[in-house]
UniProtKB/TrEMBL annotation:
It catalyses: Couples ATP hydrolysis with the unwinding of duplex DNA by translocating in the 3'-5' direction; ATP + H2O = ADP + phosphate + H(+). This is ATP-dependent DNA helicase RecG. InterPro entries: ATP-dep_DNA_helicase_RecG, DEAD/DEAH_box_helicase_dom, Helicase_ATP-bd, Helicase_C-like, NA-bd_OB-fold, P-loop_NTPase, RecG/Mfd, RecG_dom3_C. Residues 471-617 form the Helicase C-terminal domain. The keyword Nucleotide-binding applies. It comes from the Bacteria. Pfam families: DEAD, Helicase_C, RecG_dom3_C, RecG_wedge. It comes from Chromobacterium rhizoryzae. Plays a critical role in recombination and DNA repair. Helps process Holliday junction intermediates to mature products by catalyzing branch migration. Has replication fork regression activity, unwinds stalled or blocked replication forks to make a HJ that can be resolved. Has a DNA unwinding activity characteristic of a DNA helicase with 3'-5' polarity. Belongs to the helicase family. RecG subfamily. The lineage of its organism: Bacteria, Pseudomonadati, Pseudomonadota, Betaproteobacteria, Neisseriales.
Length: 682
């Protein structure tokens, strides 16, 4: 789609060392220089008299050096004083190079750009930008753009490269007049030129304002490129072939009849959507979204049975071995009585067992294979793979999604996630998936009471564990995440286990952590599920998916170290039975502002969607999307919270363009995403 002789897509004509630096900035082709926009602007168009210069903004002043010295108190620093006709000003440098000192030889004229503050010795600028001007120098006639850069690439050098491209690159419109006009967008060329080479009538703060029409235009274009590429990916998938899986409903009906509960309306709706997709001759890529505990597993099981009824195999993968194991146990319990053979396949299996499992999968004897992603990375050949189910899909990268696709042709894919996606994210980053939402919890759940307790009150909390278990319920105790050291984290878990065992001799206290072998972990989990153990001490391995309805107390140590999604997931492990459940979030002072903000959100909210929305506000979309974003075009200019209106406009325009102006689509994608189009085929 991109032509090699097209000047926009040629690499910048620079030496290899410089090309490397540009590459670090995401600049791989000449047009990327055009799209490399300033972070901010400096105003060197106007010279202030020292005495009249305003506070609270960067100003340019010029004066003669009347003194300088290197002071040693309170720390080594260079201090100079300059003077103009109106007054004088101190310039202070805490970091400086020896050769900077000579700029301040008495009698030199310098210009200083910086913010003036009131200091002990009168007005001062700390670390101003300095230029010696000798007998005066002309003022800039427009604001100076300051670009994101890397070490060893100066602003003037980068500016020169960029400005050269402004004259040689095509900056025409990609959008047809007919569709662009009603949106009243600033023309692309005008927006680009203004941002790179601002005219004197704009102030630095006007140019920094995201509502400036020029910025709006670029954000819109960027969002439009994203929408177009997602839609193309969606279309490309619809052109692929997959086996239509109609099923005769025998097995699914048999399972539904045996269930001790009936499906909620939301589960039925989601299942109907999945089943409708499965009957299609092209691959389903559906995201099944539902808050923790909303009952996604049974929907997945029934979808699996539809595939199995149709004579195909199903693979289910989960991000951790514990979670995969839970699925295995639950699905075997549901499916084996119906005569459907289920197999466990994980990295930790012994060689012989693994070979057996692989043989059974290859022969088609195994109808459902459950495991971790190791299942799909190894050389596992399916006989007839019809459906792949991926739990907690946000934990997996796009790459893994692709790897799956290559096994046994193109199976249908059902992805499950308990991480609720705010609407803006769903609209942009998940626009290539179909989404079903389970927006209703099964009946009979009791609300969870969340408590924030200082870890100094540990004794009381242990007493509360004792009481909960004396009442016949069970408790989780989650040990803190210690990012620096897995060994330390393990040690903490072992110590906590010992302490609780000593303090609660009447109770069975179990321990699971990431270093245990899979079968050891499974044995402990199973004992906890049977209430042979009343307390389960765990590292965060239990984060997702564990399901023991009789557990009604969740204690989380050092909750301030955990992210919101993780806290929400952990809290969701309780509140699954009929007993009133409690989640104790232990914290240690002092709390950072971020930690405070997170704890406040989790304390005040139970709704996963609201928590995710707040999470997005606190830390931006990057982390929330996890691996999903890798390989996808990141948004550089648009901001999903701020630019909802632009996003909606882009979403409306995309299908019209695709329908009526395929050439405009090509031109627009080429401008914005050339060189990164590999994901179009995803
Ligand atoms: P998640 O969506 O978090 O994966 P699960 O599928 O593990 O949730 O379901 C949570 C619990 O709710 C399980 O014990 C499951 O058997 C139970 N469950 C699922 N659907 C229903 C329902 N319709 N009525 C009652 N309980 C249900
Ligand atoms: Mg689950």
């Amino acid at each position: 789609m991109t032509s090699l002789i097209d000047p926009a897509n040629q690499p910048p004509a620079v030496a290899p060392a410089l090309a490397k630096k540009l590459e670090k900035l995401g600049i791989r082709r000449r047009f990327d220089l055009v799209l490399h926009l300033p972070l901010r602007y400096e105003d060197e168009t106007h010279l202030y008299a020292i005495a009249d210069a305003p506070y609270g903004q960067a100003v340019l002043v010029e004066g003669e050096v009347i003194a300088h010295e290197i002071q040693f108190r309170p720390r080594r620093q260079l201090v100079a004083r300059i003077e103009d006709a109106s007054g004088s000003l101190v310039l202070r440098f805490i970091h400086f190079y020896p050769n900077q000192v000579k700029q301040f030889t008495t009698g030199n004229r310098v210009r200083a750009l910086g913010e003036i503050r009131r200091g002990f010795a009168g007005d001062e600028m700390v670390h101003p930008k300095i230029r010696e001007v000798g007998n005066g120098a002309p003022l800039a006639d427009s604001l100076t753009p300051i670009y994101p850069t890397v070490n060893g690439l100066t602003q003037p050098a980068l500016r020169k490269l960029i400005h050269a491209e402004l004259d040689s690159q095509p900056l025409g419109e990609t959008l047809p007049e007919e569709l662009a006009a009603p949106l009243r967008l600033t023309p692309f060329a005008e927006a680009i030129r203004l941002l790179h080479l601002p005219t004197p009538d704009y102030s630095a703060s006007q140019l920094a304002d995201p509502r400036l029409p020029a910025w709006q235009r670029l954000k819109f274009d960027e969002l439009l490129a994203q929408q177009l590429s997602m839609r193309l990916a969606y279309r490309a998938r619809r052109l692929g072939r997959a086996p239509p899986l109609r099923g005769d409903g025998m097995l699914s009906r048999a399972l539904v009849e045996r269930l001790p509960f009936s499906l909620t309306g939301a589960q039925q709706r989601a299942l109907a959507e999945v089943r409708a997709d499965l009957t299609q001759p092209h691959p389903m890529h559906r995201l099944l979204q539902g808050d923790v505990g909303s009952g996604k597993t049974i929907v997945a099981a029934l979808a699996a049975l539809t595939a199995i009824e149709s004579g195909y195999q199903v693979a289910l993968m989960a991000p951790t071995e514990i979670l995969a194991e839970q699925h295995f146990l639950k699905l075997s319990a549901w499916l084996e009585p119906l005569g459907v053979p289920v197999r466990w396949l994980a990295g930790s299996l012994r060689k012989k067992q693994k070979q057996e499992a692989m043989a059974a999968i290859a022969s088609g004897e195994t109808r459902l294979a459950v495991g971790t992603h190791a299942l799909f990375q190894d050389e596992v050949a399916f006989h007839r793979l019809g459906l792949v189910i991926v739990d907690e899909q946000h934990r997996f990268g796009v790459g893994q999604r692709l790897a799956l696709k290559e096994k046994g042709g193109e199976p249908h894919q059902l992805m499950m996630s308990a991480t609720p996606i705010p609407r803006t994210l769903a609209m942009s980053f998940y626009a290539d998936l179909d989404v079903s939402v389970i927006d209703e919890l099964p009946p009979g759940r009791t609300p969870i009471v969340t408590k924030l307790i200082n870890s100094a009150r540990r004794e009381e909390i242990i007493a509360h564990v004792a009481k909960t278990c004396a009442d016949g319920q069970q408790a989780y105790w989650v040990c803190p995440l210690i990012e620096e050291s897995e060994t330390l984290q393990l040690q903490t878990a072992v110590d906590t286990h010992q302490q609780l065992t000593d303090d609660l001799p009447q109770l069975g206290v179990g321990l699971v952590h990431g270093r245990m072998k899979a079968d050891e972990k499974a044995a402990v989990m199973a004992a906890f599920a049977r209430n042979e153990l009343q307390v389960l001490v765990a590292t965060t391995v239990i984060e997702v998916g564990v399901d023991v309805p009789n557990a009604s107390l969740m204690v989380i140590e050092h909750a301030e170290r955990m992210g919101l999604a993780q806290l929400h997931q952990l809290r969701g492990r309780v509140g699954r039975g009929s007993a009133r459940s409690v989640c104790v979030l232990m914290f240690d002072n002092p709390l950072s502002d971020l930690a405070k903000a997170r704890l406040k959100v989790i304390y005040e909210n139970v709704d996963g969607f609201e928590i995710a929305r707040q999470d997005l506000l606190i830390r931006g979309p990057g982390e929330l999307l996890g691996a999903r974003q890798s390989g996808l075009p990141m948004l550089r200019f648009a901001n999903l919270e701020e630019d909802l209106e632009l996003l909606e406009a882009a979403r409306e325009l995309a299908p019209l363009l695709l329908e009526r102006h395929p050439q405009a689509v090509d031109a627009h994608l080429d401008r914005w995403l050339a060189g990164r189009e590999q994901f179009l085929k995803a």
